[in-house]
Amino acid sequence: AAKAQHKYNSIPTSPLYTTQKNSRMFISVTPHGVEGDYNHYRTVALGSTPDRAVSILTTGVIQQLLRDDWPVQEGDLGENIYVDGIPYTFFQVGQRYQFQKPNDANNNNNNKDDNTNTKDGNDDEGVLVEITERIEPCGNLCRLPYINNNTILEQK
What we know:
two-stranded antiparallel sheet; globular
């Protein structure tokens, strides 16, 4: 998932700000993050550090939130990559993981000029990502439409 920078709506104080990102079938990852994605906190407060260039969310996190009756969906938490079938504890800080393109993406993508190359950590098979820290909930999750919603809170 990715969300482009918008002059006003990418700032957390904007009434239209949200952590939600639209899902994409494929993304392009560079050392600066997911192409076309903007993270205000990482850009402004952390000086565009590459240590937070990609956010990964696992099935385990989504399943726990759903068990706790939160109507969370893929993209709501601002993640760039959603990994299905993997528990939260799978990814370990300091380890590197290769994310590969699905087989049909490799077969259907004959364009070798697709912004992937080995010098950026990408190749025709995917991208190598190092886990630098555990994902922590963003303080702006309160901007999701179902947070602080009295109807949902009364049901809990």
